[in-house]
Amino acid sequence: MAQPFNPSVPIYQQLCERIKNKIIRGELGMGERLPSVRDLAIESEVNPNTVQRAYKELEDTQIVEKKRGQGTFVTENPAILQKMREEQKISHINRFVTEMREMGYSEKEMLHGLQDYLEKKEDNK
Amino acid sequence: MIQLEEVTKRYLTKKALQDVSLQIEPGHIIGLIGSNGSGKSTTLKLISGLLRPTKGTVLVDGEIASRRISKKVAYLSELDSYYSFFTVKQTVDFYEQTFADFNRKKAEEMLDFMKLDRTQKVKHLSKGNRGRLKIVVTLSREVPFILMDEPLSGLDPMVRSSIIKGLISFIDLEKQTVILTTHELQEIEPLLDTVILIKNGVILDQRSVEDIRTNENLSLVDWMVEKYGE
Question: What sequence ranges are listed for the domain ABC transporter (chain B) (predicted)?
């Protein structure tokens, strides 16, 4: 059964996120071919029109390229991928900071907390 | 395109649909949702020409929906509608002989995909496999409109998943339109382009599913609860 979606965010956006994360993790390499619209639709149990929309969105931001008659490929332009990697980082940090603020943590607490956490992890290695 | 123009359907004294006007564009998967007895099945039966409206008109590609509309519309009933003494293969044979648009090759592929044993008698199939067989014979027809009444109800999660995957694999949205009714909203939501919400025989709303998520920040279930409560 397919991985469930967050109920309040458009599905095409979540598909875009999943693909971007796959690229960042290296599961999808530069110039590698994405699954066909139908295959991804079947795998994630979503409407093919939704997958189409997600691919279109990624194409508009030049993260993927459509080659006529061949399919959709991850871009081979490292600058674009680097930019996307940076954007994903900022968006994750943004989410973290917003949530921490809502719970009333100060910036100092966040910084120290993060530092301590990472150092402890380092020790455990 | 499917059009309902001021359609009212009465069963003796009971009103099932009241002045319903609808337009369904081709190339989409549409969910018809609403509580039990809200008029979902009646709507599907009107489109497939199994019922005639008491008032108003139902048009499929500009043609009035009568029994002959079945050449354009495949209808999957919520009831079991095949001969229980047939084997799986005989059931497929029967559908092939009944419908000129039946694609045998597609049917065979789907039987493999659904892992159905061709030699088994329908009466010996599990409920899940009967559900799968129904999907196979309905989707093997190459018709522009496919209507499915509760294709997932009463089936376990594995069967539901295989039916959803089968639906995505074997439907051609460039040529086909699917309308289905279901209560399995959470599971079906990612599959739908549009939903039509119906309550007591009246259409409450017709919306794109992504639009509901973007503009209301709601899942389909929450949206339906909110709309129904109003």
Answer: 2-225
